[in-house]
Amino acid sequence: MSSRTSIILDEESRRAARELALRYGCSTSEAIRRALVRQRDSVFGISAGGRKQRKDILDRLFHLFEGSDAADEVRRLKEQDDGF
User: Fold this and answer.
1) Predicted model pTM
2) 59 CB burial (10 A radius; 0-12, 13-18, 19+)
3) Where are the chain's structural domains?
4) pLDDT (tens digit, 9 = 90+) per residue, 21-44?
5) What is the number of other CB atoms lying within 10 angstroms of the CB of residue 4?
6) Comparing 7 with 80, which gets the higher pLDDT?
7) What is the pLDDT of residue 19?
8) C-alpha 81, offset from chain centre
9) Which of 9, 17, 77, 83 has the greatest number of CB atoms lying within 10 Å of its CB?
10) Using CA atoms, how far apart are residues 18 and 24, in angstroms rounded to an integer?
């Protein structure tokens, strides 16, 4: 659920929000939301739910790449690219 909150930004904060929005390819409001969440995680650490989600993703990746030879894959890709 979302709710509307109004904030007053000084020029530096407004510029920072716009720069982040351009970098993320999103609206200024979305950039501010992302920045707040990242700052919270930086200060308090990632939530238990976030840690579980990351662990689940890593487990899935390990499963998907089980038995793969990374060096062989790099060689194959370089051959495909013709040394590009």
Assistant:
1) 0.57
2) exposed
3) 9-45, 47-84
4) 999 999 999 999 999 999 998 899
5) 5
6) 7
7) 98
8) 28
9) 17
10) 10
Q: Extract the tokens encoding 12.
A: 């530096």
Amino acid at position 70, single letter: A
Task: State both tokens at 54.
Answer: 């990351």
Structure tokens at 55: 């662990």
**DSSP secondary structure string, the chain?**
----------HHHHHHHHHHHHHHTS-HHHHHHHHHHHHHHHHH---HHHHHHHHHHHHHHHHHTTT--HHHHHHHHHHHTTT-
What span, in angstroms and rounded, lies between the C-alpha atoms of 54 and 61?
A: 11
